[in-house]
Task: structure prediction
Amino acid sequence: MDFLITQLREYTLKQERERGGGYKKTSYWPSECTGCNRVIYWRWKGEKSTNPVDVIGLQIMSIGNKVEQQLVDDWTKMGIVIPPPTGSFQHRVEIEREGIKITGKIDAIIKQKLKTGELIEVPVEVKSFYGDFQERLINQLQPNEGYLKQLAIYMDALDKNIGILYMVNRGNGHQFQFILTRKAGIFRLKGINYENEILKSDKPIIQFNINDTYKYFSEINKDVVANKVPKAIFQYKYPVTEKMLKSQYSTALTNARMGRAVIGDWQCKYCSYKDKCLKHEKCDHGYSKEEQEKIMELTKGYTTAQWRK
Result:
């Protein structure tokens, strides 16, 4: 008898192979709003990823998608979801900004009643996450800004001044609702948790103008048209300096000293084009012998309070 876990693994990989075949990019996606410009460029050029998501990552994403869909299903049963067009799974948006075509699919559009009694349509973006670190940020009114900008694009496309980012921790079930509002072109947010407690933060409230994102897409498109690989906005590893090292948590320093991980932007760690990008930059994986020696020298006594001064 075959193990069920093995059968599922093989099925997951087969589905991914079939999904990824023959796709041609024809527009920019709201989910790319804070993504790496170089990754977006290579997608446009149809370049094959050098670091595809492994089977565990695929199954984690599948679980997240199912959690998100369950919320939409529940709202549908509550009678507050506006059904997408017949034959469609989600509401699709298509707009042009800065001469750039942007298309996407909204998780849900719901009916909400204001205190005035007015019934309005509100676009909702649903995201699942995992871990205490993310939850601490969310409790501080600091959700992923990319999620908010993705929602803002949908709000702009539908000409709505209110949108909802709904987040759920798939590890403990904690849920959070962020209200994103638009006024004079500026988007701002406020949020509550599952116990209806208003979230507060000692940090500045996130606010932005979505036109900056449209300009970002426009700049990438210039490189696409010119067939010019853009300079990446993220770094696989930061230059080894005393100032950089002292800005890191002790865990990151320990991993760097032990050669277990480099210190850089997290986007590069999980990038599906990481090997291709490093080759383009003529950069090796991990630290060189010289970099490792410099790290060891500059972090002597890093576990003491004196070293941080």
